[in-house]
Phospholipid phosphatase related 2b (Neogobius melanostomus), 297 residues
Amino acid sequence: LSAWTDSPPPSLTPCSGLNMFYFQLVIMAGTVLLAYYFEYTDTFPVHVQGFFCFDKAYSKPYPGPEDNSKAPPVLVYSLVTAIPTVTILIGEVTSFFVKSDGAQEKTIVTADCCYFNPLLRRIVRFLGVYSFGLFTTTIFANAGQVVTGNQAPHFLTTCKPNYTALGCQSPLQYISERRACSGNPYLVTSARKSFPSKDAALSFYSAIYTVVNVCDAGIRTKGTRLSKPTLCLVLLSLAALVGVVRVTEHRNHWNDILAGSTAPRSPAGIPLLSLPRVESPLEKLSGLQGYRISEIT
Ligand SMILES: *[C@@H]1O[C@H](CO)[C@@H](O)[C@H](O)[C@H]1NC(C)=O
């Protein structure tokens, strides 16, 4: 047992870990609020792009509302929420019971005022960082869609421009007229929000986060040598499948999927912050205070 039992450094107040927790809550609330404004309000109007007359790349048939998709939002969002949660629960509970053979301390003193079961603490931290990343990914995708205004493959089908009135004669003609569309305004606005694909971004974020935190790190038990790579492969394939469905249903172009899938890792994307292995200030503090029992022994 290589535990430090020295008294905590005097510079740290007993509850600074808890203050940090409240600070994280405030950041989280702001992120959720911003995601809400992007998702459910018209606070950020979409950039109106023009189009080329008769453009075949944007004249694909309208696939119907999102709920009719083979990968409907309800399914995608449920999986994106459930898969990492279930995976981490199984993984953590398994490794907890495997490790507890050594009969190490089950409760770690984080500060004078807070006691945490290490299992519970790891799970809460994993899910907290995960949901923060999920909301930042949503914001990233929504902001990209609104700023670029890149159109979906079915854009012209929902836009229904009157080519005669617009004077379209050849496909080389560019129409920048803002009110060129005569179709349902709601559908037209939705068809302007295509780049990057939010579904692809969320699916890949979910898969990569789970792979990085569960498959790559964390649990090291004998029985999982083969099942871990399999799980990782299945998760990434599922995310890729969402992208394939979006493209075959003419809801997105390939570059929308590509941009969405690289979003969590792109240098410009904020979600990058939450991708490395979960490490919260709460744990660093507890380590500093000398109460932490080394897990490596
Ligand atoms: C398109 O515009 C032309 C000329 O303005 C008009 O005669 C025609 O009825 C319009 N077509 C539709 C489908 O609105």
